[in-house]
Every structure is written in structure tokens, then in C-alpha cells.
Design brief:
This protein is mostly helical and about 525 residues long. It folds into 3 domains: about 230 residues, Orthogonal Bundle (Hypothetical protein af1432), CATH 1.10.3210; about 200 residues, Hypothetical protein af1432 (Orthogonal Bundle), CATH 1.10.3210.10; about 60 residues, Winged helix-like DNA-binding domain superfamily/Winged helix DNA-binding domain (Arc Repressor Mutant, subunit A). A two-stranded antiparallel ribbon has the order 1-2. α14 packs antiparallel against α15, α23 crosses α25 and α24 packs across α25. It is globular.
């Protein structure tokens, strides 16, 4: 159901990248907005250095995309260190060229990850893991870079941005990764962003003056000495306002020309890139988001959902698990029951999906569907505990599609269920009042199961057009306003209204509005803001 149109989607490429930056902030253990702050600081520093427009452009995008390959390494880091998010948070505070400090950090995390083992096994396990971490670091970073480069290419970026993402941990002194580049062989944008992102982290930990003192100490080592000198001399000016929340509008306003608006087909491609970024988190999730989106889209066709809703549903399926970047990978691969704290962290992933996508209006509409994929009609789901009247039909379909796909995929704590077992489980949830029967039948039909014919239309037999009219009625639009919105005559609108009133057994706008709420036929839920 992807749109092949070149029509403007209403979403800018910079908005997609900024959303990914918010997601990678969570994955790297930083406060939401870390990447936005580093983007502001990076552009300020670039201007102070007198850099030309193309290099400012590369700084802008590298600041926001630097860690977009992070999920490629999450599973490997979790295997060595346990909570990879906490490990990344602490790693960001140290000098990556200081071998002794790194060894102490690595050893502490490796010991913590093996704390439950018998002493002898733990000792050898720690030694092997420490040695493995040293040997695997270059390969891990190289994988991070390669994934970042491929995702950037899919998002439509050019050679400069892609080159820079292959150098994310390079240093001025040549002791970086993955290629050991030295001095000016490291791209200007990479040198600037490495310095600026470190300054944001260090300023939060040590204050502005403390961060600048560390910049002076690392000048000529981790950092380009000219850049470090300019930052230290003009630190008060460049770091001004960095202790507050970053402004989304300020960052979007800094985007260098030309500011790129995505077409509908490019937005589809961007959502697909987000899906693949998300699913790299765990080997058990590979392809999950694509599969959920495809099943939900097929169910939408089966149930004759209006085209706009069906497109939103497919895209919401692609991005529904984006918030899982905030959950340690070790939780996803645990082969036993989750502890209470682990369950709570897992349950928050739907919240983070909504928060990361909340700011661009069109993405917020997707987030309102995506963030409800674990909600249930009886209020037993999460993260809101929403009930039926709060769940639109697209959200109900996505919940059923996600549940079906998850059950038919292997997990570390259970084998994959057969298609018939998954279908039986969904039907049980319908009887228990947890999932919507119409949505479940649409999903099962899309998955190839036999379903009753009566489920092949909307509630009360409404057509797609009547659903669109019902939504406008529920929002209080006049006949003329509905005619303009739908591109039809006022008389045709009146005919639709009379027909749908007869089908649903009401005679007033208020009755029609209540019917729409009861059957999950309203527009997507309320938009949210950070």
C-alpha cells in the first residue's frame, strides 16, 4: 500500500533525521535532545571556524546521524557487558584513547554481567570477555559505521555525509576506530562533531568550565587542536543555552539549504529504513516490523479501510517498535521470565515510540497508532491502559497484526507458534474482550486463515466513504465543509449522512459521534508533544 506518488508528504528529511537522533540519544544512554544540542553547538563552532556551507551542512547532518548504526552493535555489547545502554553512557565520559581507563570500565561491566556465576567460571568468563572486547571492538565499530552509511544512503544523503559516517570514532591522533585515520585525514565534520558531542556530555557531568578544561587536555589527542582552541576561547558564547532543553524549531531552522521535503514514496522509504534500524536491536526481531506492516496493510485492504488510514496504518506498522532503542538488548534475549523492573522497562517502549515521533504533525499521527500496539480493549494493555473507546480501528488492527506476527516468531524463551496456534490465541483474546473481533478477522484473513464473511466490511456495513463522512460528522463539520473536504457536492454529502444514519440506527450528530467512538472509527488519537 506504499504511495508511489511524488506528492509532498508534508515531512522534511531533517525531521526524519531529528527523530532518529532522539531515538539514538536513548540508545546511547543520553538525555533526549543530546543530538539536537550537539547539532546546535556543531553549527555554531563551524561558523566560528569560518567553514563554508557544504561543510556546515555535513556537520548538521553528522550531528544527528552519528549513532544511527548503534543497533548493529547492541546485541554484541549486551553479550559482553550486560546493559549496553548504561555502558555507553559511562563510555561517553572517558577518553577513548586512555587504555587503562577503558580496561577498568570494561572489566567492571564484564564482572557485573557475570555476577551470578560460580567463582571459577566467573573469573575465566571475565578474562575471556575482556580479551574478546578488545579484539572485537574494531569489527563492532566497523559494523556500526557500515549500517549507518547504508541507512543514510537509503534516506537520500550524498557522498560526504556517507563518508563521514564511516569515521565516527576516528581521532586527531590516529588512535581511533575503525581505520585509525589521523589529523586532517579525518573529515572536518567528524572532527567538529566528535568534539561537540563530547562537550555536551562533559558539560552535563562537570559543568561548562570543567568540560572546556577537558577539551584543553585532549587537544591534539582526541580533538583537532584548532577546533579545541576556538571552542575554549569562545566557550561562553558557543555553549550558551546548552544547559537547557534544546529547541526542535531552532534545530530545524538551522538546516542548510536546500531544505528537502519528502515525497509520499520517499516517506514510505524513510519509514522502511526506521523499521530496519529498529529490528537490528535483537536477532529475534529481524524483519519483524516489515512483517507487521505488511500484515496490517493486507488486513486494511481486506476490511476496505479508507486509503489514507490504510497508508497511515502501514507506516505505523513500520515504526511501531522504534522505542525499543531505549530498552537494553539483554532484556530482549533473556531466556527466562523478566523481573519486575525489566518488565517495566520493556513496557515503556511504546511510550518512547510516541515521544520520539511526537513533533512533526504527520509523524505524530503515525505515533498515535504505533504507540497503542500493545493496548487492549479491556484496558489490560500498555503503556496507557487504554480501553476500547480510545482505540481507533487502525490501532486495533495493528494490535492484532503485531500479536499474530510476534507469536509466529521464535523468542529466546519459547519456540515460534504455528499459524493455527497463533490464530487460536487471537480468537481467545477476542472472546475475552481483549482484541477487536473485526480487526482480528481482518488480520487472520490477510494471513490466509478462513474467517466468517460477515467480518469483511466495517461495522454496520458502512462503506469507506461513509466512514470518512462519519468522522467529519463526529468532528462537527457542516455539510458544506464536508463537501469541500471530500471534493463532492453538498447534496451527495447529505445522501451519505442519511444512509449512514440509517445503517447505524441513529438520528442525531451526537448519536453518530458516540457510534464512531464505540467502534473505534474516529480519527487517530490526540497528538502529543515533548
Amino acid at each position: 500500500m506504499a504511495h508511489g506518488s511524488d506528492r509532498d508528504s508534508g515531512v522534511r528529511r531533517a525531521e526524519i533525521v531529528a527523530c532518529l537522533s532522539l531515538a539514538t540519544d536513548l540508545a546511547m544512554g543520553q538525555g533526549v535532545g543530546h543530538g539536537l544540542k550537539s547539532c546546535l553547538l556543531g553549527v555554531r563552532l563551524g561558523r566560528a571556524l569560518g567553514l563554508p556551507g557544504e561543510e556546515l551542512r555535513e556537520i548538521y547532518y553528522h550531528s544527528l546521524l552519528r549513532f544511527v548504526g548503534c543497533n548493529a552493535e547492541s546485541y554484541a555489547l549486551a553479550a559482553l557487558f550486560g546493559d549496553e545502554i548504561d555502558f555507553r553512557r559511562e563510555f561517553a565520559l572517558i577518553d577513548a584513547g586512555d587504555g587503562r581507563t577503558i580496561l577498568r570500565l570494561v572489566t567492571r561491566y564484564v564482572r557485573g554481567a557475570r555476577a551470578g556465576m560460580p567463582l571459577k567460571e566467573r573469573t575465566w568468563g571475565v578474562l575471556r570477555a575482556v580479551l574478546a572486547s578488545k579484539g572485537e571492538s574494531a569489527a563492532t565499530i566497523e559494523g556500526h559505521c557500515e549500517v549507518a552509511q547504508r541507512l543514510a544512503d537509503r534516506l537520500g544523503f550524498g557522498a560526504g555525509v556517507i563518508r563521514n559516517l564511516g569515521q565516527i570514532y576516528e581521532r586527531w591522533d590516529g588512535r581511533g576506530l575503525p581505520h585509525g585515520l589521523k589529523g586532517e585525514a579525518v573529515a572536518i565534520a567528524v572532527r567538529a562533531v566528535n568534539l561537540c558531542q563530547d562537550m555536551i556530555v562533559l558539560a552535563q557531568a562537570h559543568g561548562g568550565e570543567g568540560a572546556l578544561a577537558i577539551a584543553r587536555e585532549r587537544s591534539g589527542k582526541a580533538y583537532d587542536p584548532r577546533m579545541a582552541d576556538v571552542l575554549c576561547r569562545r566557550g561562553g558564547e558557543l555553549l550558551a543555552g546548552m544547559d537547557g532543553d534544546p529547541s526542535w524549531d531552532d534545530v530545524l531552522g538551522l538546516e542548510p539549504a536546500p531544505q528537502t521535503a519528502l515525497s509520499e514514496s520517499e516517506l514510505d522509504a524513510a519509514c522502511l529504513a526506521i523499521a530496519d534500524f529498529t529490528d537490528l536491536k535483537s536477532p529475534y526481531a529481524l524483519g519483524h516490523s516489515r512483517a507487521v506492516a505488511a500484515l496490517a496493510a493486507s488486513a486494511a485492504r481486506h476490511i476496505r479501510l479508507p486509503d489514507a488510514d490504510a497508508a497511515d496504518l502501514r507506516r505505523a506498522g513500520l515504526v511501531h517498535d522504534l522505542g525499543q532503542v531505549a530498552v537494553p538488548a539483554a532484556i530482549f534475549v533473556k531466556d527466562g521470565p523478566l523481573a519486575e523492573q525489566e518488565r517495566e522497562r520493556m513496557r515503556l517502549h511504546t511510550y518512547y515510540t510516541e515521544r520520539v515521533l511526537a513533533r512533526p504533525a504527520k509523524l505524530a499521527r503515525l505515533a498515535a497508532i504505533a504507540g497503542r500496539h500493545h493496548e487492549r480493549l479491556d484496558g489490560s494493555g500498555y503503556h496507557r491502559g487504554a480501553r476500547g473507546q480510545d482505540l481507533t480501528l487502525p490501532a486495533r488492527i495493528l494490535a492484532a497484526a503485531e500479536a499474530y506476527r510476534a507469536m509466529t516468531e521464535e523468542r529466546p524463551y519459547r519456540p515460534a507458534l504455528s499459524d493455527e496456534q497463533a490464530a487460536a490465541a487471537l480468537r481467545t483474546d477476542v472472546r475475552a474482550g481483549r482484541l477487536d473481533g473485526e480487526a482480528v478477522d481482518a488480520v487472520l484473513a490477510a494471513a490466509g486463515h478462513r474467517v466468517p464473511e460477515k467480518r469483511k466490511s466495517f461495522a454496520a456495513g458502512l462503506t469507506s466513504r461513509e466512514i470518512e463522512v462519519l468522522r467529519l460528522v463526529a468532528r462537527g463539520h457542516s455539510g458544506k465543509e464536508m463537501a469541500r473536504a471530500l471534493g463532492i457536492s453538498a447534496k451527495t454529502v447529505d445522501n451519505h449522512v442519511q444512509n449512514l444514519y440509517g445503517k447505524i440506527g441513529v438520528s442525531t450528530r451526537a448519536g453518530a459521534t458516540l457510534f464512531a467512538i464505540e467502534h473505534g472509527l474516529t480519527q487517530a488519537g490526540p497528538q502529543t508533544r515533548f
